[in-house]
Amino acid sequence: MSIRDWPEHERPREKLLAQGAAALSDAELLAIFLRTGVAGRSAVDLARHLLGEFGGLRQLLEAELEGFSAHLGLGPAKYAQLQAVLEMGRRHLAAQIRRDSALESPQAVRDYLKARLRHEPHEVFACLFLDTRHRVLAFEVLFQGSIDGASVYPRQVVKRALAHNAAALILTHNHPSGVAEPSQADRQLTQKLKEALALVEVRVLDHFVVGDGEPVSLAEYGWI
């Protein structure tokens, strides 16, 4: 049965307009993106099939072009559209944290860091550079390492902080394993960077570890 033949309140687009996007399932959201199904399958049926093949929405969103395009109903055009949607989402989050103090919008900071780092297959270390009112000046990936870890050089972090004329910063890195629990090495690195940056009067406000769930804050653990 075509989606057009469904009761109006069950159609994904109409349901979104009436109840908001959060009310839709992953398959319904994907169906709106797909717009049409294939022979014998409605857009929702196709979406459910694709989610099953990929193993979930996150895996589909993070798929590479070749793997993405190999599936029924998808291709380079859909891949390009999807990447554009994801980039718009990241830029929206970036605009939100640039508008407000990072300390006053902790969830926005978490959401932004998840969007930037959670999909990385290898360990990445980055900084949010902040002004005197703790508004974001810039986000930079400073070091990239193997899946086992990254070498972080305090001199380079200090250099970039001075280049941005930052008054404070937030450190962040991902754990590709998906487990965001801070390690002893993470705590030691944070202390080393905190001491180096204090010499040029730049404060370290937090260090977030990004995994599969919510980023973990070392400041909330009392380790900053």
Quick rundown:
With 224 residues, the chain is α+β, with helices and mostly antiparallel strands.
Characterise the protein shown here:
With 224 residues, this protein is an alpha+beta fold. The protein has nine helices and five strands; from the N terminus they run αααααααββαβαββ. The chain folds into two domains: 3-74, no CATH class; 102-217, Cytidine Deaminase, domain 2 (3-Layer(aba) Sandwich), CATH 3.40.140.10. It is 45% helix and 15% strand. Strands 2-1-3-4-5 form a five-stranded mixed β-sheet, sandwiched between helices. α2 packs across α3 (43-54) and α6 (76-99) packs antiparallel against α7. Keywords: Hydrolase, Metal-binding, Metalloprotease, Protease, Zinc. It holds the Pfam family UPF0758_N.
